[in-house]
Amino acid sequence: MEYKRDINKNIFRGYDIRGIYPTELDEDTAYTIGLGFGSHIKNIGMSKCVVGHDNRLSSDVLYKALIKGITSTGIDVVSLGLCTTPMYYYACIKLKIYSGVMVTASHNPKDDNGFKFAFDESGNCKGQEIQDFLSFILEGNFESGNGVVEKYDITNDYIELFKSNLHFGNRRVKAVVDPGNGTTAVIVKKIYDLFPMDLIYINDESDGHFPNHHPDPCVEANLEQLKKKVLEVGADIGVGFDGDGDRMGMVDAKGNFIPTDKYLIIFIRDIINKVHKKEFLCDVKCSKCLTDEIERLNGKYVMSRTGNSYTKARTRDEDLPLGGELSGHVYFRDRWPGFDSGLYVGLRMLEILSNTDKSVDELLEGINHYYSTEEIKVPSMDTDKFNVINRVKEYADKNNLKYIDIDGVRIMYEDGWALVRASNTGPNITARFEASSEERLEELKKKYMNIINGYNIDIDIL
Average pLDDT, stretch 271-281? Predict the structure, then answer.
């Protein structure tokens, strides 16, 4: 392996480093990133870091190359081996070593891979930090040394964290659990089988080919098997997890998909009278039904830009008891150490069900109803994405429309909203629309999709 001077700059994205293996991201790239990471944390006074990897087919080779680069700078590595991203987070907390790298591409297609990384206790790098790190790598001023590798198994400590944290009631919940052949398959049974439930597992073999469905449980199309199994066995709920285990998707007893911005309502209703600070974070993609309910409960909502690195940091920095985003990242800080774990979020929902005789849909009664699209992805070159955002913003300005521009543009109407933003995880524009009627939803969608696609449209207020 050798220093890669022509490293692909496009893999350095908004929340992490991510690209296709081996065309955009190979062993030399991983080694080079390791040289940069080790040198940087050495420069800021660190001597040791934590490294883990998910079950993707390319993860082990990239992991080894990364570690070789890091140790070549004189930094010692605590090697976790195969683990979920939440297990990596907890290892950093448990060992009080806050510099680290997780080799993962989360919910991306199987040929993708990447690195989530943190230099210190401020958490995962994001935005300008990542671009500054790229500049540092390109300068090539690396440290040298002979770091050592120490293997560490976080499994038992992680299991104990769950055992001490959850309090199930008398109702024995029947649940279908779908790890989606992702990394949670290596740990899920050891944790879930600890609690008094009737469990049916599907797709529970670790397989980086992801042979049964795409590893993103927050896209409804990926939960068809889970829906069918819930209906087949008469389960109370179905829960599924993404490739690296930091997100949860959910279906109710009727096989209905429950998006994150709705199941967050169940959590907030459960904890709002148990916490001192009644403020909760959501991202710009979340439904108005969530913010309506928070206000109805006499709480406050904090709206954040999208992205795990941003939403988790803001939930922590503003000392909020709970935060979440539509993509499935949820952060409990009431009795959990604040990192996103799909397994834990699933168990918190199962815990609630075990302490009530209500079904999931009954726990959601009384919320305001809106019609929403799923997140729509429009392919767009990274160099063009922000031109599209500016085009939408110009439209809003010309028509004196209210909008939030903390992450793309969320344009707000009395009866709905339209969001257009640049994806930070791929070459896409992403859009989402919501309205009080199906007709209005279609109207908003048509108008803004035309703007995204560059058509000349009448500049008239919707």
Answer: 98
Q: Position 413: which residue type?
A: Y
The pTM for the full model equals 0.94
**What is the second-level CATH architecture of the domain 168-363?**
3-Layer(aba) Sandwich (3.40)
Tell me: pLDDT of 167 over 60: yes
> What average pLDDT does this structure show over 101-108?
95
Q: Which has the closest alpha carbon to 308: 340, 280, 285?
A: 340
Q: Which residues of 123-146 are buried (b: 16+ CB within 10 A; e: fewer)?
A: bbbbeeebeebbebbeeeebbeee
CATH 3.30.310.50 in the chain, residue ranges = 371-452
Angle formed by the axes of helices 59-71 and 27-43, nearest 10°: 40
Q: Does the pLDDT at position 432 exceed 80? A: yes
Catalytic residue positions? 106
Contacts (Cβ under 8 Å, ≥6 apart) of 45: none
Q: Is the dihedral of CA 184, 189, 195, 198 positive or negative?
A: positive
Q: Nearest-5° angle of CA 86, CA 92, CA 94?
A: 100
* Pick among 3.40.120.10, 3.40.50.720, 2.60.40.10, 3.30.70.20: CATH of 9-155: 3.40.120.10
Domain with CATH 3.40.120.10 in the chain: 9-155, 168-363
| CATH, range 371-452 | 3.30.310.50
DSSP 8-state class, residue 12:
B
Among residues of the chain, what percentage have pLDDT more than 90?
93
Which residues are 403's β-sheet partners?
A: 411
Q: What pLDDT, on a 0 to 100 scale, did the predictor assign at position 384? A: 85
